[in-house]
């Protein structure tokens, strides 16, 4: 593909600015996290002594170990279910024939449009009536449901991008719907599935309000809730809050970097086949 | 729509594929939404017995300037949450696609995706300092000799909503880029080769192949970002709490306040239902973009 | 069928469903709360059976509560206390549901006394008060007395404060000395003169965290000076007919706006949060910092001997100063508590000399009279100011707590617009009264 040199230089310029803009808040957080404990830093400043031990202090103050376990359990309960269910439903929307498909699709859309905060009160009573309040299920089940509208929408649009001829070829070969789905479409959808996995993981990992309302025991809540340990009624521990926020992001970041290589490989493979 | 005889078995299979997703969704989202609609007709503190008020809560929403004003703010945020990230995102996605070095490209992707990795609340906190009087943004402006453009960004009514919008732009940008990139990856490479052979330049390829090929992704981006603008919560809650005055108040924060602080679950539900209907009216028509079969 | 038509159909179908639901079912709420609780007669005798008492409070109070629990368990060996502490920024929201749930804690902070009493989620403590002979200053319990329909201000006692939180003015005596100020101001006039000195010397006269409503503390003092404490307290206690839309309140708002215009507050006051404000004050960046007892340890650490505290002065030197004050934790007993006698014993213990000394140790002024001393000199100044104010009987509850959403929807936004000049003082009080009217029934 041809591209003039000027366009390319402008391109790199734009790219550089975008990345600088994206990273700036993280530098600001890191700068704040490395200041002496108990200080209230303002602005970005890496000139003084850097206090890396703040990360250990943040881990201990926020009692992160049990929260990490709770978050991991929650993610294990939620993410695979969301991926499987939404892949099935997305495939049904894109390649099969659901009666009243538009109505079903619109119903899913409704779930995206309601401010989540209002659902907390009815969910509390529903979970309470089910008798699972204060258990792990109280968080896992609703989180599967709450992730559904986005996930279904995501999978539907990626299945719709697939080359039709492949599927039709498979159908002519006499492959059943389930086999076409498993052996033709699902492998092609791997990039979409892995990015959905990351996004669902994030939504679950960062959920906080629901955990506070549905689970009384603070140790059974989520990692995102660990940040609350630094936000007092009158005073926020700015340094530890930043260190804690970076700690909470770390596992997600590792996961993303790991999946991202796979993500690109899958994407390239997909386009070669197409 | 094409009329074609569909075998009933196919309909059944389709429904089976849909069932698990819909079941969870119906129980944990649709039913609570119906409950919310029911609550919206009551004066209720969320705990004790409620009093029936009919449409009283809705009347209040359309007569109280604080309540309908917050809805207007959220529509303004669409510019920052939706339109800007998609335009910039398209430009960047197209550029990254052309970077041949794999390691650079994956580094860029990781960086761009970072904002999505951070909890919304932490993003709000980080940006609040950056936008503070002694914060990084003013630091940078001063070092560039642009001292006269500094503001207390979140403390002046004239710029606060825009400043909140910038946080939203930051948050949505990487997401839009990643989504658009995955779409570009799915576009048939032979289309570009054919176009090149025909002598189509970079811009013609962009408009003739890339943009149409990304219709679905752009539709999804628009839908999700518009929803996140209209139902925004954590960014505003963590950065301004709706202030100064009520200049950055949005329905998401208002709903939370009413339901949890003021314990007016009925009024909060009515505002949420109003917002839901408005969002549906805006994003509903967009679905024809997403839905290829409508052609 | 087009999408927009489908959306119309779907929306009307959903509304129809909601309507059917609303007609068919009864009103929401009021069913989940009652659990099978055996009634027990009020008694001091806790027997020797092993009891696990559950406690609920805000996370900021965890270390104080843990010390209390340790001392309590030493006194009652057969009782184990298991505490749960919710994050501070959600505890107020979570509180009403926590105390009303079927498995409520046995003793808990009562975050909203009105709804707790109206919904019968807490029990009256009158019997225990007689049994144990609690003798708490009336000025501190009045906010926790209520009639059976939840009207606060008189009636049965429903919660007992364990210590006091009180507003007042911190000042940096080193900065003051540089400006030639040797004494804390004894009147609003003197305060203004000192602020002018600071302003002229290029020092921020008053660090003002208006992002979190920090202006209300000094405003409340000015209003008390102008209108007397009963007007303020009646308004906070939601007495019918009371209003902030009155002359003294407008005058106080005019004063705040005047100070803001004169540049006496931090230039970024409207966007300044409490923590950053505290950080700046501790760095020596300002002369005065209107705040409260909750910052005594932080300020002692930050400024040491340079830190000072005084009660908000009267308008003139012969008018008494004032403060807003209420409980650090108002402990009550939820109706679903399974160990009410043990819970009452815990509450009684919080009033003991041992527990009160623990409160002082953690930086909270004690609620019971006594010669309390702390090794924190700033806290000692606060304790001194407190006993003076108790003698003058010139404390009020916080205007921030007048209604559940007063702080978030009334105080914070309207002080911001008062300070940036976009709202006139007369409109300011009307806007706050409007919030009051919308919540007081």
UniProtKB/TrEMBL annotation, chain A:
The keyword ATP-binding does not apply. It comes from the Bacteria. It is found in: Cell membrane. GO terms for biological process: transmembrane transport. It holds the Pfam family BPD_transp_1. Residues 68-259 form the ABC transmembrane type-1 domain. Keywords: Cell membrane, Membrane, Transmembrane, Transmembrane helix, Transport. PROSITE patterns: ABC_TM1. It is a multi-pass membrane protein. InterPro entries: MetI-like, MetI-like_sf. One of its GO terms (cellular component) is plasma membrane. The keyword Transmembrane helix applies. The chain crosses the membrane at residues 12-34, 72-96, 103-125, 137-155, 188-215, 239-259. Belongs to the binding-protein-dependent transport system permease family. PANTHER family: ABC TRANSPORTER PERMEASE PROTEIN MG189-RELATED (PTHR43744:SF12), ABC TRANSPORTER PERMEASE PROTEIN MG189-RELATED-RELATED (PTHR43744). This is Sugar ABC transporter permease.
UniProtKB/TrEMBL annotation, chain B:
One of its GO terms (biological process) is transmembrane transport. Gene3D superfamilies: MetI-like. GO terms for cellular component: plasma membrane. The chain crosses the membrane at residues 12-34, 71-95, 107-129, 159-181, 218-240, 260-283. Keywords: Cell membrane, Membrane, Transmembrane, Transmembrane helix, Transport. The keyword Transmembrane helix applies. It is found in: Cell membrane. InterPro entries: ABC_transporter_permease (IPR051393), MetI-like (IPR000515), MetI-like_sf (IPR035906). It is a multi-pass membrane protein. PANTHER family: ABC TRANSPORTER PERMEASE PROTEIN, INNER MEMBRANE ABC TRANSPORTER PERMEASE PROTEIN YCJO. This is Sugar ABC transporter permease. It comes from Alloscardovia macacae.
From TrEMBL, chain C:
The keyword Transport applies. InterPro entries: Bact_solute-bd_prot1 (IPR050490), SBP (IPR006059). Keywords: Signal, Transport. Pfam families: SBP_bac_1. Belongs to the bacterial solute-binding protein 1 family. PANTHER family: ARABINOSE-BINDING PROTEIN-RELATED, OSMOPROTECTIVE COMPOUNDS-BINDING PROTEIN GGTB. This is Sugar ABC transporter substrate-binding protein.
């Amino acid at each position: 593909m041809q591209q003039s040199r000027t366009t390319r230089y402008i391109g790199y310029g734009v790219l550089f600015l975008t990345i600088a803009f994206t990273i700036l808040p993280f530098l600001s957080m890191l700068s704040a996290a490395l200041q002496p404990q108990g200080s209230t830093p303002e602005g970005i400043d890496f000139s003084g002594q850097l206090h890396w031990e703040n990360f250990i202090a943040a881990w201990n103050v926020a009692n992160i170990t049990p929260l990490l376990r709770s978050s991991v359990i929650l993610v294990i309960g939620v993410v695979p279910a969301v991926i499987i269910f939404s892949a099935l439903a997305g495939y049904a929307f894109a390649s099969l024939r659901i009666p009243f498909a538009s109505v079903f699709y619109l119903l899913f859309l409704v779930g995206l449009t309601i401010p989540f905060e209002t659902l907390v009160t009815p969910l509390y009573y529903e979970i309470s009536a089910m008798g699972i309040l204060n258990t792990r299920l109280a968080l896992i089940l609703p989180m599967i449901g709450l992730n559904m509208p986005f996930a279904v929408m995501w999978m539907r649009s990626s299945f719709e991008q697939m080359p039709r001829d492949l599927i039709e070829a498979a159908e002519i070969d006499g492959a059943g719907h389930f086999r076409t789905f498993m052996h033709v479409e699902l492998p092609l959808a791997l990039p979409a599935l892995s990015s959905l996995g990351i996004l669902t993981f994030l939504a679950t990992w960062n959920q906080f309000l629901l955990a506070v309302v549905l689970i009384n025991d603070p140790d059974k809540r989520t990692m995102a809730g660990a940040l609350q340990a630094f936000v007092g009624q009158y005073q926020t521990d700015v340094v530890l809050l930043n260190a804690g926020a970076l700690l909470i992001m770390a596992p997600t970041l590792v996961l993303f970097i790991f999946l991202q290589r796979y993500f690109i490989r899958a994407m390239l493979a997909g386009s070669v086949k197409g | 729509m094409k009329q074609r005889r569909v075998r009933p078995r196919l309909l059944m299979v389709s429904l089976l594929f849909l069932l698990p997703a819909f079941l969870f969704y119906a129980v944990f989202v649709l039913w609570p939404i119906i409950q919310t609609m029911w609550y919206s007709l009551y004066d209720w503190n969320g705990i004790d017995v409620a009093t029936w008020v009919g449409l009283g809560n809705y009347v209040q929403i359309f007569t109280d300037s604080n309540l309908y004003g917050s809805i207007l703010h959220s529509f303004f945020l669409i510019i920052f949450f939706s339109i800007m990230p998609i335009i910039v995102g398209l430009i960047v996605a197209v550029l990254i696609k052309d970077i041949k070095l794999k390691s650079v490209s994956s580094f860029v992707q990781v960086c761009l995706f970072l904002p999505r990795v951070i909890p919304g609340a932490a993003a709000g906190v980080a940006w609040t300092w950056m936008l503070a009087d002694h914060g990084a943004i003013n630091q940078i402006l001063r070092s560039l000799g642009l001292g006269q453009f500094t503001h207390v960004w979140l403390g002046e009514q004239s710029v606060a909503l825009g400043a909140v919008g910038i946080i939203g732009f930051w948050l949505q940008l990487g997401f839009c880029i990643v989504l658009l990139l995955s779409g570009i990856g799915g576009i048939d490479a032979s289309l570009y080769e054919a176009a090149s052979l025909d002598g189509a330049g970079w811009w013609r390829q962009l408009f003739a192949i890339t943009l149409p090929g990304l219709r679905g992704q752009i539709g999804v981006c628009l839908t999700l970002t518009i929803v996140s603008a209209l139902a925004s919560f954590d960014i505003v809650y963590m950065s301004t709490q709706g202030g100064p005055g009520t200049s950055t108040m949005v329905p998401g924060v208002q709903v939370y306040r009413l339901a949890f602080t003021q314990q007016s679950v009925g009024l909060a539900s009515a505002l949420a239902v109003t917002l839901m209907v408005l969002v549906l009216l805006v994003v509903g028509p967009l679905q024809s973009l997403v839905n290829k079969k409508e052609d | 069928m087009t999408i927009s038509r489908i959306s119309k159909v779907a929306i009307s179908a959903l509304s129809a469903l909601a309507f059917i639901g609303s007609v068919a079912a009864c009103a929401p709420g009021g069913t989940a709360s009652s659990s099978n609780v055996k009634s027990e007669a009020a008694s001091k005798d806790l027997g020797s059976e092993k009891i696990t008492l559950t406690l609920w409070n805000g996370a900021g109070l965890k270390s104080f509560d843990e010390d209390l629990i340790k001392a309590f368990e030493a006194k009652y060996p057969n009782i184990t206390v298991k505490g749960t502490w919710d994050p501070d920024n959600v505890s107020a929201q979570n509180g009403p549901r926590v105390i009303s749930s079927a498995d409520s804690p046995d003793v808990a902070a009562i975050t909203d006394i009105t709804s707790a009493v109206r919904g019968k989620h807490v029990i009256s403590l009158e019997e225990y008060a007689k049994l144990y002979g609690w003798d708490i200053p009336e000025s501190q319990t009045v906010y926790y007395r209520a009639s059976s329909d939840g009207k606060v201000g008189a009636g049965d006692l429903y919660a007992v404060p364990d210590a006091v939180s009180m507003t007042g003015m911190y000042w940096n005596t080193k900065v003051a000395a540089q400006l030639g100020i040797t004494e804390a101001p004894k009147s609003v006039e003197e305060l203004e003169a000192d602020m002018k000195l600071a302003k002229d010397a290029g020092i921020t006269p008053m660090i003002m965290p208006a992002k979190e409503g920090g202006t209300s503390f000094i405003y409340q003092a000015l209003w008390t000076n102008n209108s007397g404490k009963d007007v303020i307290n009646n308004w906070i206690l939601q007495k019918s007919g009371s209003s902030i839309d009155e002359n003294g309140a407008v005058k106080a708002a005019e004063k705040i706006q005047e100070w803001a215009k004169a540049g006496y507050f931090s230039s970024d006051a409207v966007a300044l949060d409490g923590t950053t404000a505290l950080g700046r004050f501790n760095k020596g960046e300002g002369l005065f910092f209107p705040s409260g007892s909750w910052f005594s340890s932080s300020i002692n650490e930050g400024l040491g001997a340079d830190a000072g505290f005084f009660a908000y002065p009267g308008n003139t030197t012969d008018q008494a100063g004032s403060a807003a004050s209420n409980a650090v934790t108002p402990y009550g007993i939820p109706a679903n508590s399974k160990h009410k006698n043990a819970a009452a014993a815990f509450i009684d213990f919080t009033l003991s000399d041992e527990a009160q000394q623990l409160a002082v140790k953690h930086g909270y002024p004690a609620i019971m009279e006594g010669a309390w001393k702390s090794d924190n000199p700033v806290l000692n100044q606060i304790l001194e100011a407190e006993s003076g104010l108790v003698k003058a009987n010139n404390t009020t509850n916080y205007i921030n707590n007048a209604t559940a959403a007063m702080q978030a929807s009334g105080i914070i936004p309207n002080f911001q617009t008062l300070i940036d000049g976009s709202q006139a003082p007369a409109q300011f009080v009307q806007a706050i009264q409007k919030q009051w009217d919308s919540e007081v029934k």
